[in-house]
Specification:
Helix content is about 30%, strand content about 20%. By secondary structure, it is of the alpha/beta class. The protein has a single domain, classed as P-loop containing nucleotide triphosphate hydrolases (Rossmann fold, 3-Layer(aba) Sandwich). The chain starts with a strand and ends with a strand.
């Protein structure tokens, strides 16, 4: 269920299944934007070159993307590059780290709530989905998302709408979802801690980032920020 694209540490290990993803990924890379104002990912290892090629194809699509990688491998930087060079670059890039937010607050942050519907709430909390309208929502460490929030996210992905707590009705959403994790999602599914149907919805295109362990053939990748004109290690 759902089309899949896999990029591994081997530059020749790219495989694609189902016609939907194949047709989408054949689309040309957008060429009508100024790359001088955007960050550039640099890396010369076979694994990074494979990722660069796949990023070039994915920027021409609106496919959901799942990024796997150990801590510090630059998952959010890759998500930001997908947005900056993609069709939604004129919209916002909104990031939320599931591991950094208390589990009881994840739903209110992700889906929002209306004024006075939560204890002590005097102001409306605008959901991250609403903030990302027309752009990209990056869900970092999605393996930490509670099951109830997973069910609501699945609804949003299927129906393209979100309902804040206390809202009278749903709001239509137009958001590209990019998720990341350092956990074994398949193992979490087996343990009943992650929804398989949500995984299928998110795992349309898969990017697997190389680990920080550096064998002789591995060269680090860097990000150059045009604003600072300095290179900083992806770690």
């Amino acid at each position: 269920m759902g089309s899949k694209v896999l990029v591994t540490e081997d530059a020749h290990a790219t495989r694609m299944t189902t016609g939907v993803a194949k047709r989408a990924l054949r689309a040309p890379v957008p060429a009508d934007h100024d790359t001088k104002a955007e960050p550039t990912l640099i890396g010369r290892s076979p694994a990074m070159l494979a990722i660069h090629r796949m990023l070039g194809r994915l920027t021409a699509t609106d496919l959901p993307v799942m990024i796997f990688g150990e801590s510090g491998t630059g998952k959010e930087l890759v998500a930001s590059a997908l947005h900056s060079y993609g069709k939604r670059r004129s919209g916002p890039f909104v990031a939320i780290d599931m591991a950094a937010i208390p589990r009881r607050l994840i739903e209110s942050e992700l889906f929002g709530y209306e004024k006075s519907t939560c204890a002590g709430a005097r102001l409306r909390n605008v959901s991250r989905l609403e903030q990302a309208q027309g752009g990209t929502l990056f869900l970092g460490e999605i393996g930490n998302m509670p099951m109830q929030a997973q069910a609501r996210l699945l609804w949003e992905l299927r129906e393209a709408e979100v309902t804040a707590v206390g809202a009278r009705g749903p709001m239509r959403t137009d958001v590209r979802i990019v998720a990341s994790t350092r956990q074994d999602i398949v193992q979490l599914i087996r343990q009943g801690q992650f929804r398989q149907d949500l995984f299928y919805r998110l795992n349309v295109a898969l990017l697997r980032l190389p680990p920080l362990r550096e064998p002789p053939t591995f060269q680090r990748s860097y990000v150059i920020s045009p604003r600072s004109r300095r290179a900083r290690d992806c770690r």
